[in-house]
Amino acid sequence: MTSTPNATGDVTPDAPTGASSETETEYHRLGEDIRDTAAPSGPIERRWDDRMFGARLVNPANRRKIKVLVVGTGLAGASAAATLGEAGYQVETFCYQDSPRRAHSIAAQGGINAAKNYRNDGDSIYRLFYDTVKGGDFRARESNVYRLAQVSVNIIDQCVAQGVPFAREYGGLLDNRSFGGVQVSRTFYARGQTGQQLLIGAYQALERQIAAGTVTMNTRHEMLELILVPDAEGVERARGIVVRDMVTGEIESHTADAVVLATGGYGNVFFLSTNAMGSNTTATWRAHKKGAYFANPCYTQIHPTCIPVSGDYQSKLTLMSESLRNDGRIWVPKNKEDAEKDPRDIAEDDRDYYLERIYPSFGNLVPRDIASRAAKYQCDDGKGVGPGGLGVYLDFADAIERLGRPAVEAKYGNLFDMYARITGEDPYERPMRIYPAVHYVMGGLWVDYDLQTNITGLFCAGEANFSDHGANRLGASALMQGLADGYFVLPNTLADYLAGSPFEKIADDHPAVLEARQAVEERLQKMLAINGTRTVDSIHKELGQIMWEYCGMERSEEGLTKAIGLIRELQNEFWTNVKVTGTNEELNQTLERAGRVADFLELGELMCIDALNRRESCGGHFRAESQTEDGEALRHDDEFAYVSAWEHPAEVGGKPILHKEPLEYEYVEMKARSYK
Amino acid sequence: MKITVNVWRQQDAESKGSMVPYVLDEVSEHMSFLEMLDVLNEQLTLEGNDPVAFDSDCREGICGTCGVVINGIPHGPEVTTTCQLHMRTFKDGDVIDIEPWRAGSFPVIKDLVVDRGAFDRIIQAGGYISAPTGSAVEANNIPVPKADADHAFEAATCISCGACVAACPNGSAMLFTAAKITHLGLLPQGQPERDSRVLGMVEQHDAEGFGGCTNIGECTAACPKGIPLDTISRLNRDLLGALSRQTIG
Question: Quick one: which of A391, A410, A392 has its CA closest to A400?
Fold first, then answer.
């Protein structure tokens, strides 16, 4: 497959059977190119204003007749649901947790970016836009990123008004810090728990709407299917979802005028990741199987500053905010023989501060993908420290000497405590050990500028969509995107769609509803009936090992091909030999996990197919075959400057269909990233 | 090391529960407490038995989902969340009792899983600042003295796990409620609703069946985030003020 993206937007026909290698490979078929038709043109700084002005409005009196379902209550979901409730729509929300306040946004530590330029250090909306496009390795859309930078300033105002306790200076004004990948201080933070504080702000706004009666909340409910109903013109529209009440096992259908998925990322396809145990792809994957395109599934962010693995019982990995890289210095022993030594006994001259050496201008603050891969290479080279030689040092000795221990404690105290609790080592006395871990996925459901998927009436926000980070996300930008989507983008773009509603009411016994419910029930019963010999977790762990080995920090044609074969065998193993105890009609955590793992097994295969197709290195996707002489990532803009939007094949066992959305850069010149 | 756990098993809210012993032969000191339960559940599943239901999510001590009573103490012998407790705290041959949060307002759903929906309803009764999206002023127009901001932050670190309720002999949720009153009441943005907030939240707290506070302090001792007891003094002061203004008004 060597065709280039079609810059004129001409149609490439769907491959017929037995097509040439131009349009079909062993693993996929090539479909028509697609375009983001919702994106306005004109000067970039005017596009969002133009879109808002062009969007249709819904009369306040009509809003209460319109119903919207919001799945997921993290930053994107809670902020969208609260804002839509404030506007007067009927909103119904769902989360698998026991409270909306527990969504995994809560675990974000470091901060949230905003182009306030409070430091007077040359920051601006344009610079945040530029940094994000560059940081995303030229695989994000300029229009989306510019809008993100624009609304970033409103987010901080909104959060402060809600009472989010950001860090402040003695004068009472907001404090900032710098973060990986940029040279300005634009990150707002609340000690090491910015995510929790922002989520509590959104959660409180949501609870206020629940009390006001505009939002109905369903906790411990998991979405298992999307309901599509054709309208009078025959256009399939998203009109509802099927959920399982996780306490009673009851299968419920909910219908509405529009559906918003804000269900987070799929990093748990690797089993070990920094995601919460329950984070999953089921909602987005079910939507994908109903026709929604899945974009750039292979773009995975591996976070450089996690606590290394200690044993095979490990259930998850713990991230420590990369803000630690502001003051900590990363090093390994120059000599392999020193890897086992107490680090304090290794002389200064025998240490290799490899990031400072290789990247003198950014040093320890290079983007996450570069920092992660550099650590892997040091460990591959035998210089890794700690159990299994899978770790590098993050040293605060200089910072403690320069700033004093109280200042370091004030900035990073809770992270140091967390490290000490997990490892049993005191980081004030001895350098931390860190190793990369899967942390975030840039891929997700394909959406247009309005955050609408290719399924009419299905919207997707936050980490669950693919839209703003390209091939790599900058630090402190996930919180920014989640809240931008939820507070400011969706409420405007969704209104444009809802202006055409209310649509025909869907009865509970509508054939499309019954069919979706039946599919869910059959699938649950099928899993319960297998009664094999493998536990759900053992299969999930095996999938995770395959993904980490072949679709992790470094990918190759040989490895990915092998991985696809192994995953297919494992899918078969799951559907013939998994053991799910208990019944559906009870709280059954094994059944919950089984359904999620079944979807991860299919998603994992698509990630490998996507990674195999993208024969270039960019951002969080590093192909061994595509690197410079010094081992740096090498993009191929002539061939791969496009979004890969994957369509699920209609026939069972068919090949996924690749639609390319060409990316064009009018404002930021595409050039090789250099952090040297 | 070899560990015996006595686990509370209860099929559902209506069923009667009991403590059931299980033996784990190979527990590593580096395992987290919940990873030890994962290992138990793998063992139970392979034997064809129903695994122990317990809640957990982030497993890094911030989401507040996990929480069991370990040897009579919420979250166990160290001041942290259950997910951050490690088996190095225990020794070979130990017998560990594991029970759900014990409080009438947190009914058991199954085994170690309880319903903490009452906390969300207390927040609904006033635990917020009304700031509809779009209405905010420029952030630095609201300076907050650093000391107030720091104290507000300290109270805002509450993760709503419910250990305070489980620890309290009265089954009171005053520490949880007071943390929110303190967080929002210390900020200039929180002033307009300060009276209605404390009146609404305390009323809901009582309606949920949580007990009253008698200054025992077990709550703050069990709190994994160290929410201080003086937040309850602040709640009482705000409540008294609000009630008197309500009477006069």
Answer: A410
